[in-house]
Amino acid sequence: MSTSQSIAPPGRRAATKEANRAAILRAGREVFADLGYGAATVRDIVRRTDLATGTFYNYFPDKEAVLRTLVDDIAAEARRRVRAARRAATTTEGFVRDGYRAYFGFIADDPQTFALLRRNAGTIRTLFGEPVIGAGISDLRADLEAGIAAGALPPHDVELMAAAMVGAGVEVGVAMLEREPHDVERCVGFATALFCGGLERLPAPQL
């Protein structure tokens, strides 16, 4: 067999590497959602692919690296969707409604992702130091401050509001996924009424 026949072209090798990495991440998502990070092993992940154990280590040094990659990817996509929705809003109602619609829609589209985050929340908090499941408290604080500055939101304690909105979003999202069908608009309407009413009644923070 000639050299040109035995060695795959660079494009094909790159495609194979990408496919292998994606397979490991898909398997890791399933395993962490089903078993939890603590109980899961590299072998559990490999068993849900067509790859050899040695191939796993060509892409990730351990299971923590898989979890970190998954959470980074999930958080980036959630934040992208939610922040885009909030930043496009010009009213208090739009800010709250569109942000929650983006978030609830995201988790309703992929319940396994939410199951992974929920089941491994303690581990994720330890690794990342922030509740990634809420799509970023620090992001929300910044967006609330920007909304106040633009006149779209009334002045209020943004630190407390960000904590309240993220916490409520997580718990309402859990309740939504436990119901069939997943009623995104019902949850959006509930959260919007709750926080729009609250924002209107909150006193301005003391300077």
Characterise the protein shown here:
This protein has 207 residues and is mostly helical. It has 2 domains: 9-61, Orthogonal Bundle (Arc Repressor Mutant, subunit A); 64-207, Tetracycline Repressor, domain 2. It has helices at 3-6, 10-35, 42-47, 53-56, 63-87, 92-109, 111-119, 121-128, 137-150, 158-177, 184-201.
Main traits of this protein?
single chain; Arc Repressor Mutant, subunit A; 0% strand; elongated; disordered N terminus
Assembly type: single chain
- Structural class from helices and strands? mainly alpha
Q: Percent of residues in helical segments?
A: over 70%
Strand count, sense and barrel status of the largest sheet are: none
C-alpha-based Rg, rounded: 21 Å
Secondary structure layout:
Elements: H1 3-6, H2 10-35, H3 42-47, H4 53-56, H5 63-87, H6 92-109, H7 111-119, H8 121-128, H9 137-150, H10 158-177, H11 184-201
Summarize the structure.
The chain is mostly helical and 207 residues long. Helices cover 73% and strands 0% of the residues.
